Amino acid sequence: MSPRNSTPTLRDLITADPGLPYPNPTTPYWISDPGPHPLANTSSPQLPETADVVIIGSGITGTSIAFHLLQEGPPDLRVTVLEARSLCSGATGRNGGHLVTYGAVLYSSLKQMLGRELAYKVLNFTFQNVDAVADAVQRYAPQEAGYRALDRVMCHGDEEGFAEAKRSVEEFERDYPEQAGRYTFLSPEKVKESYGIHGVAGAIKFAAGALSPYRFIMKIWETLLARYPDNLTVEAHTPATNVTQVPICSPDHKYRYRVHTPRGVIRTANVIYATNAYTGHLLPTIRGHIWPFRETMTVQGLSNKIPNRGVTTSWSVHQDPVYNSTSGKSETGTLYLQQNPRNGDFYFGGAYANAEEALTSDDSGMTAQGTAYLRKELSQLFGLNQHDKTRLVSEWTGIQGFTADGAPLAGPLPFSVTRREGGREWIAAGYNGGGMALCWRMGKAIAGMLRGEDVSEWFPEVFYATEERLESTLAVDVGVAGIKEYFPDYREQ
């Protein structure tokens, strides 16, 4: 059956219930080498009856929220973290290991949508986030995370895209001359000569980082559990299956929410959804405003003719999505890679998929075509011929949370989403594949909001999950139209 006549439609796919995380996901190399962290499956002998805060999700967002709540008080605060699978087994533990913000490359489009000041506020948030993660890694997991400060070489596959990116950087530097000097333009010849990449229109070089996010986050959990044994409980393999509420007038109104799990019910004063692509399972009204998008990651060995730049360089390649109408599959437009500084193997990710394969929350499998595409692309990027096949070391899939307007959802959830009174349910989700540039500071912001602090000076208001935004820039029709660019032959509805 051709994509044009197949079901489900794009609307069906992005509004489907993502369900709970799959119980038997593919295994990321970050976890398999050298093996899961000793605390990966930690849980209490008995689920706590009450908590001041329940955080659902143990990736970088949930970790950061717990970190900032506990670090900054109050000292008697009790926090429980629920994770459906092992700790950090979702997007954070499955990504490409990049600590990067594209910054000024995005400035012109953000300025057009948001205005100059708010566009800068968004970019500055990401700059501060990258710095904060680098600081936390070096403070808490300097050896475990394998962190390197390096250069990102952001390549563009076509002249038009490269010219647009350069114009955006130049506009950013005109508007904010104090930021000049962050970015260097590279010709195709320079990219090939100095960084090994063939067949691109040019690149922009800027400072970034690379690491194992899984090892970093697990070290933070190790630190928090040791430092706050009376304040923190972390419950792996304990999915939140439902959230309910007692009446405000109830004698137990302090703990007004009930978080239901297979191990029992926790009464809590605050619920925080750090659930990214899976948020729609617990909050059905979020479906179509955040949806899952699956990509494939690999570890590959290349010819020993390729030098090891793992200490100095990471790369990405950007172009418009390329759709194959015969197969119904799309090259989704972004490839990202870094090298293992120990052995030179490449961590290389992207997507080649049809709509059903991409718009899914299932990370328990992958497609042979998706992996074959990444093997072919890696060889071609470094100018190798078809006889120089890569050595496949590892392959896995991961689920990103996408939104129609490209921005995350954060802050207190309105009644229209939760259908519950009280106003103590919070969200931080929907990072569109760019969570490493957002999540740590997002966690700090959510922790501050929960304590009643004013974060408006540094937190971009465009991130708030307002009713107005849900009905306009995050409307389901807007999301369907955006996905249509990846899969033009698929029916919208």
Automatic annotation (TrEMBL):
Transmembrane segments: none
Coiled coil: none
UniProt-listed PANTHER family: DEPENDENT OXIDOREDUCTASE, PUTATIVE-RELATED (PTHR13847:SF213), SARCOSINE DEHYDROGENASE-RELATED (PTHR13847)
Lineage summary: Eukaryota, Fungi, Dikarya, Ascomycota, Pezizomycotina
GO CC, alphabetical: cytoplasm
InterPro entries according to UniProt: FAD-dep_OxRdtase, FAD/NAD-bd_sf
Annotated organism of origin: Aspergillus caelatus
Protein name stated in the entry: FAD dependent oxidoreductase
Residue intervals of the FAD dependent oxidoreductase domain: 52-447
